[in-house]
Design goal:
By secondary structure, the protein is mainly alpha-helical. The protein has one domain: Up-down Bundle (Four Helix Bundle (Hemerythrin (Met), subunit A)), CATH 1.20.120.450. The chain contains 6 helices and 2 strands; from the N terminus they run H-H-H-H-E-E-H-H. Helix 2 packs antiparallel against helix 4. The chain is globular and about 60 Å long.
Length: 188
């Protein structure tokens, strides 16, 4: 890590703020540890919400075709972002034509892959930059922290679209609100 990464900047601010030796650094470390826990919890929610969408798709009499297409995209995009973080080549199209069974397999696989990755993730790795090309071929660099945040928000955005399509078709969408998952004990 260099002196310009977010963690070093936070710690150097501590030193310039004339705090007690080590006190501010410990506070920063504690906050970053909490951020890791927060991200792990968000990915647990993401897994639960993706499963709820699939269950709803299967129980709906006439689910709109877009719902399965969007769920497949959510799962493929999650896979792509993990591959980018791990500096692996892209293995799936961004918009795959997964069946409901394939989505179920991908939900389980991605949940395990994210859990494994996040359990091994260190506070220092959050500020690492990942270089990649987007689907238009444009080069970009993003921190691991920003990528993880994007993955969760991207998935929630498309689950919202799925709910809109389902409701427009006269059906009841899956109830995937985060607060609902917490209240019901579906996630810790």
């Amino acid at each position: 890590m260099g002196s310009s990464d977010p963690i070093s900047l936070r710690i150097s601010h501590c030193r310039s703020a004339r705090s007690l030796p080590g006190q501010c650094e410990r506070t920063v470390k504690t906050k970053l540890d909490k951020l890791l826990q927060y991200l792990r919890r968000q990915f647990a929610y993401d897994e639960w919400a993706n499963r709820e969408v699939l269950v709803n798709f299967r129980m709906t009499a006439h689910p709109p075709a877009q719902t399965l297409r969007l769920l497949a995209h959510i799962l493929s995009a999650e896979h792509l972002w993990l591959e980018r973080i791990l500096r692996q080549p892209q293995s799936l199209p961004v918009w795959p034509g997964f069946s409901a069974d394939q989505c179920e397999t991908q939900i389980a696989a991605m949940a395990n892959l994210w859990r494994e990755y996040l359990e091994g993730l260190s506070v220092e790795q959050l500020s690492e930059n990942v270089s990649y090309k987007n689907s238009k071929g444009e080069p970009w660099r993003s921190t691991v922290e920003d990528i993880l945040t994007h993955v969760v928000l991207h998935s929630a955005y498309h689950r919202g679209q799925i709910a809109s399509y389902t409701r427009a078709a006269g059906e009841t969408p899956a109830y995937t609100d985060f607060i609902h998952a917490v209240r019901q004990g579906f996630i810790e």
